[in-house]
Amino acid sequence: MKIPVDPPKLNEILEEAAQHPGFLGIIMSGKTSAEVNGEYIHWDRLRHKTPPEGLTSRTWWASIKLARLGLKRNLPLLDKHAVNFSVSITDTLQKRLHFIDREAAGAIQGMERSGGQGRFLMRSLIEESMTSSQLEGAATTRIVAKEMLSTGRQPRDQSERMIYNNYITMKTIRERGKRPFTVDEILELHAMLTAGTLESEEDCGRLRSQDDNVLILDRGSDTVLHTPPPAREARERLQRLCDFANSQDDEPFVHPVIRAIAIHFQIGYDHPFCDGNGRTARVLFYWAMMNAGYWLTEYLSISSVLRKSPGNYMRAYLYTEHDDVDMTYFVAQQLDAIEQSITALHRYILSKSEQDRAARRVLRKAQVAGIELNHRQRAILANAIKDPDRGYTVATHQSAHQISYPTALGDLAALVDAGLLEKHKVGRANEFVPAPDIATMLHSSPTPPDPTAP
C-alpha cells in the first residue's frame, strides 16, 4: 500500500488565489460542499478528478477544506505531536448516524419469529470472532471455527486460538454489562485476546516498553506506513482514552457512535501493545457501543465488512494522519461498515424467517427427510426451528410426552439417522441437538410422491 500524497496547505493556496480575485471569490463563496458526491474524499484521490468549472484541483481542494473547517470539532484525543484529532460531521454522516440510532437501539422485526435472540447472538459472536482474527492473520475456515466454538472444543493451533480468545473476550464484555473503561480492564482484555498467540507470553496484557520497536509496515513491502507514539507515553495515552470513553456528558457533545469509533481508531493509532492491537481496538469499540445502549451491536459483525476491503480500513487511518489529523476519514469508513453490518443482519433474519416458514410447511407433510414422523418428532423439529441451540435428552423427551424410555430413544435415534439431529456425549448422557442447517434441510426436503396420483 502506498502512503497517500499529502494535501497542499490551505494558507498557501489562499495566498496564490489572492493574486486571482476570481479564484478567491469562488473559494470563499461557501458554495462548495465538504464532500464530493456524498464522499469524504482525500486529496490523494481528488487530485485525479476533474474540478468544477472555474477552479483548479488546488483551489477546489481549498474550498472543500474551508467547508470542512466550518464543521470541524476537536476531540480530546491527541496525535503523537500533541495535536487534537478532529471530526467534521457532514450531512451524509448525519444520515448514517440517524440510521444507526434508529436501527441499533430499537427492536428488529422478525428476530423473535426467526428463533430468538440467542440464535443470532451465537451467529454474530462466531462471525466476529473469526473475521476479526482473520484480519490479523488467522487462517481457519468458517466451518472449522463454527464447529470449534459451537461444541466448546479447545483450539488446536494458533489461528484457532486467536478465534477462540476473541469469542471468549466478546462473551465476557457482554456478560459484564455496562461498566466504565479502566486501564487495568483493557490490559485484562488484551491478555484474554492474546493468550497463547504471541511469540512471548510475557507480552500478553502488558503495554509495550522502550525496548519494543513497533512500526506499522506495508505487508507487501518494507514501507513504513505509521510510527506510533513513544512507548513511554502508552499508559498516559490509554488513561486519556479511558477518560474520553467515560465522559458521556461532557461538552461539546460527541455522538456515542463517533465516540466508539474514535476509541477504535486511537488504539490502532497508538499501538500500545506489542501485538493484538487491532483485535483489542475492535473489542473496545463493541464495549463502547454497548455502554451507550446500542444493544444491536452485539448481533453485528463489523469485522466481516472490514475483511472484505482491508485496504479501505488501512487507508482510512493513513488519510487521517496525512490530512491535519482529520479523523473524519476513519469515521466515514466505520459508519459505512456499521451500516452494511446492520443491513446484512436484516437480510439474514429475513432469509431465516423465510426458511423457517417453509420448514414448518414441510412438517405438515406425512413424510419428511425420508421418514414417517409421529407427532412427538414433529414437536421436536418445530422447537428446533424456533430454538436451534436447545438440546434434548431421552429423559426430557420421555418426560415431556409420558412415553417409555425405548420409545423416546427410538424417536430421537430416527431423527439422528435422518440427519436432522446430532448426538453428542455430555458427561454420561447423550444430548441430541438440531443439525446446524436444520431449517434449510427441511426447506429443501423433497415432497414425497402422492400414492393416489395416477
Question: Would you summarize the structure shown here?
Answer:
This protein has 454 residues and is mostly helical. The protein is 53% helix and 7% strand.
Summary tags:
single chain, 454 residues, mainly alpha, Fic-like fold, Arc Repressor Mutant, subunit A, 3 domains, two-stranded antiparallel ribbon, 8 strands, 7% strand, elongated, disordered C terminus
Provide a descriptive summary of the structure in words.
Helix 1 (10-17) packs across helix 4 (57-69) and helix 9 packs across helix 12 (277-291). The protein folds into 3 domains: 10-70, no CATH class; 74-350, Fido-like domain (Fic-like fold), CATH 1.10.3290.10; 363-443, Winged helix-like DNA-binding domain superfamily/Winged helix DNA-binding domain (Arc Repressor Mutant, subunit A). The chain has helices at residues 10-17, 21-27, 43-46, 57-69, 91-104, 117-135, 142-151, 158-176, 183-194, 234-246, 256-270, 277-291, 302-308, 310-321, 328-362, 375-386, 394-401, 405-417, 438-443; strands at residues 72-78, 84-88, 216-217, 224-226, 367-368, 371-372, 421-426, 429-434. Strand 3 (216-217) and strand 4 form a beta hairpin. The termini are far apart. Helices cover 53% and strands 7% of the residues. The chain has a two-stranded antiparallel sheet. Residues 447-454 have low confidence and may be disordered. The chain is mainly alpha-helical and 454 residues long.
